Amino acid sequence: MTEEEQFEQDYKAYVASRRAHLASHITPETIAYLEAEFQTNLPCYQTRNPATGEPVEPNPIMAAIRDGQREVILWLKYELSQYEKQQQKTNP
């Protein structure tokens, strides 16, 4: 086995381990809580306060934070779906 093949095999094992760990600790309820807590259903740039409906000036820093929170949740969902897909392949 070449060094490159060994690296690829080790990386695949690492990814499988990471996904298994996430799947054992991150539940659908956790994802739902994070989505509600960070209001990821809202656009990144807010022109109104979500709580009061009052007009607000768009804040690029807050938009970046909201975008980052949304991306983390999307990544968690992706990793969990890939774990489920792999589990279905190995345990039909």
From TrEMBL:
Protein name listed in UniProt: Uncharacterized protein
Q: Which organism is it from?
A: Akkermansia muciniphila
This protein's source sits in the domain of life called: Bacteria
